[in-house]
Amino acid sequence: MSKAAFKHPLDPLTAEEIVAVTSEVRKYVAAKTDIKAVRFFSSSLLPPPKRVVLAYLGIPLEPGAKPEEPTPIVRRAEADFLDAVRGGGYNATVALKDGKWEVEDFVELDKALHPFISPEELMECEFIVKADPKVQELAKAVGIEPDQIACDGWSIGYDARFPQSQRVQQAFVYARFSEHENLYAHPLDFIPIVDSTQQKVIHIDFPPHYKKTENGHKLSTDFVGAPSLEQDALAVSNRDRIPPPLRRWDFLPDLMEKSEEGGYKQRTDLKPLHVVQPEGVSFKMNGHVLEWQNWSMHIAFTPREGIALSTITYNDNGEIRPLFYRLSLAEMVVPYGAPEFPHPRKFAFDSGEYGMGTMANELSLGCDCLGQIHYLPGAYVTHSGDAFVIKNVICIHEEDAGVLWKHSDYRTGGRGHTVRRRRLVVKYVWNYHFYQDGHVEFEVRLTGILQVYVSGDNEPNPFGATVAPNINAHYHQHMFCLRVDPMIDGLKNTVIESDVIPLPDAPTGSASNYAGNAFISQDTVIEKETGRQYDFTKERRWRIVNSGRKHYASGKAGGFAIGVKGAAAPMMVREDSWAAKRSTFLSNTLWVCKEVEGTKSGSQRIWPSGKYVPMTREEPKDSIGKWVEGKENVVDEDLLVYINFGTTHIPRPEDWPVYAFRPFL
Questions:
Q1: Distances (CA, A) of 221 to 172, 224, 225
Q2: Would the N or C end of the chain have less CB density within 10 A of its end CB?
């Protein structure tokens, strides 16, 4: 493809390209298969190999080297879709050649593999549940009419009662008494299972409940596991039906004015706070490429990760230094802590099971973003093959970030100096912060509505918090995996683990440590593919370095340090639990593996929990735990670094009905 045909080889598919790709796939399916109807679930760019992209952009592979000669680039895309009649998944690779898209590769997926759940499937799940006669009967028994039923579709998580080839969802059911009221205030006591292909409810589960005893609490059944599909689930739960709480817990101001006792009025004593830049912003945009304060990067929406930053460089006094080939949040997992079935099924993979891009909404000025904003759009495929466009899905702006540095000279007549700090914010749901001093920060904040379940009057709640009368919010975690594809001064990088420890073999009073205060920073080069855990006792940290670039004073290899102390969190589930077996990448804080690319496309190692996540039950073959088993050399290599972090959410009544933004990283 000619250089003039696209602005940047990593530009995401446009809405027009998505339609062209799916149209070509449809033609291929109609001509060469017996598939009668298809439903698309993803259609996205297949990036070219890394060296091809860097040559195109004129970015060198080593310090002081010249860029490689550019070669022709063929624009490629891939599409995942299902046989809408019989089920079963397929993946197609499509290439743009001579101005026309054509199918290059067409693969039927293993029956146990499923593309991620689409927004349309989640909405269909609610329609299916609401229309089901048994669901209506169960709701009616606790006072809820059919038109008051609402539900959230969720991935099934892990349920061995259903074959992995069957595409199923679980549905959390609520009552909703008016159009916009908070449905989560009225949880119902049963959980339907929906077959997404057959579009019908195939089973309904009833969680057991707890009772107070002299010694604390006791579950209504002696077994916390799953009853068989042949058993009466309500009878097995050994408890009575529990009606939903009826009190409204609205969070929309106009509804609160009507539903809150004594009325509701928003604060009126806040004066306006204006963020203005009368001379305009300091950054420049050219399509998806941004330049600001010596930084340059490509910014793109992706259906699965939400946002990816690529080809990040820094202009160091005229030398363009490559730093990161790609940064993205590759996975997010939310395991819940209640052991009684079916609650253990709740551990959502927000990226791998839903797609964090397809779940996005449009950002609004004055709320999501404040100041002078530049927006970027995003597009993803719908079941029909059309493109759904989110106009303002990424926002870019500058912020004052407090004091950069300050020094005071206490001597008489001494001079002090203070410098303000400016930062660039690239915002999706989370924020990438770029600073003038060259460091990068990834910030995640938590907000939203708790996933809740109904509880009986005065019911004990050993694995959660009673956030409102008869409303139980289970303990859970939010675990994230940041994928770092480094190119620190080129593609030959190394990771160094650094521990801060007391001076070894030198007790207090010894000749080398008489006062007992000595401690050192001890470096260990990570030589082979592996995973490493954070160690609080050693203030452990890691550096990604290029041995070919030495600091002029220290003589040490230049690079970037990885700071996770404020966000490192262990996964609280058992190592052999359902959740842990599906998300083995969370067993370490940091992973280092060698990059592997295709001959026609880029990285083959992107998803730490596998490419196809729904319905998995074990560690996938294409996941990071399997990749590092090769123990390949990772010294002075093109490598990948995966950083895991998170937080454990013990809900509080103050988190209800909606909890405010809380940064933890």
A1: 21, 7, 10
A2: N
b or e along 442-455 (b: 16 or more beta carbons within 10 Å of the residue's beta carbon)?
A: bebeeeebbbbbbb
Residue 462 CB neighbours (<10 A): 13
Query: What is the rounded distance in angstroms from the CA atom of residue 39 to the CA atom of residue 25?
Result: 11
Distance of CA 345 to the CA centre of its chain: 19
User: Is pLDDT above 90 for 263?
Assistant: no
Q: What's the DSSP call for residue 121?
A: H
Q: Name the 3-class secondary structure at 592.
A: strand
- Note whether 461 and 215 are within 8 A (CB): no
Is residue 124 classed as helix, strand or coil in its secondary structure?
helix
Q: Considering only residues 516 and 365, tell me which one the structure prediction assigns the higher pLDDT.
A: 516
| Residue 190 to residue 142: CA distance in whole angstroms | 11
Omega before residue 243 within 30° of 0, cis: no
Is the model's pLDDT at 664 over the cut of 60? Answer: no
Nearest to 571 by CA among 553, 583, 554, 558: 583
**Averaged confidence pLDDT in the chain:** 95
Q: Is the pLDDT of residue 661 over 80?
A: no
Cβ atoms of 403 and 101 within 8 Å: the answer is no
CA 656 – CA 645 distance, rounded (Å): 25
| DSSP string of 395-408, one letter each residue | EEEEEEEEEEEEE-
Look up residue 37 and give its two tokens: 């109807």
Instruction: With 0.85 as the threshold, say if the pTM is over it.
Output: yes
Taking the C-alpha atoms of residue 659 and residue 468, their distance in angstroms, rounded to an integer, is: 13
**Residue partners of 98: CB distance under 8 A and separation at least 6:** none
Q: Which amino acid is at 300?
A: A
- With 50 as the cut, is the pLDDT of residue 4 above it? no
DSSP calls for 225-249: SPPPTTS-HHHHHTS---PPP----
Q: Token pair for residue 5?
A: 């045909």
- Cα dihedral across residues 246, 252, 255, 256: positive or negative: positive
- Angle (CA) 80-86-91 rounded to 5° is 15
8 burial via Cβ count (<10 Å: 0-12, 13-18, 19+): middle
Q: Which two tokens stand for residue 190?
A: 């049963």
- Structure tokens, 195: 């077959």
pLDDT computed for residue 662 by the predictor: 64
Cβ-proximal residues to 513 (8 Å cutoff; 6+ apart), any chain: 503, 506, 507
pLDDT of residue 665: 41
DSSP character at residue 10: T
Residue with tokens 């001959």: 599
Q: Write the DSSP symbol of residue 442.
A: E
E strands present in 57-176: 76-83, 89-97, 100-108, 149-155, 168-175
**β-bridge partners, 464:** 474
Q: What is the distance between the alpha carbons of residues 51 and 71, in angstroms, rounded to a whole number?
A: 10
What separation in angstroms does the CA of 558 have from each of 60, 66, 314, 543, 569?
16, 20, 14, 9, 28
Residues linked to residue 537 through DSSP beta bridges, in sequence order: none
- Structure-block tokens of residue 295: 């930084």
Task: Quote the CA–CA distance of 645 and 441 in Å, as a whole number.
Answer: 13
Q: Find out whether 408 and 416 touch, Cβ atoms under 8 Å.
A: yes
Report the b/e string of 388-412 with b at 16+ CB within 10 A.
Answer: bebebbbbbbbeebeeeeeeeeeee
Closest CA to 373 of 362, 381, 364: 364
Copy the structure tokens of residue 537.
Answer: 């006792």
pLDDT attached to residue 54: 97
**Catalytic positions, please?**
350, 432
CA–CA distance, 574 with 436 (Å, rounded to integer): 43
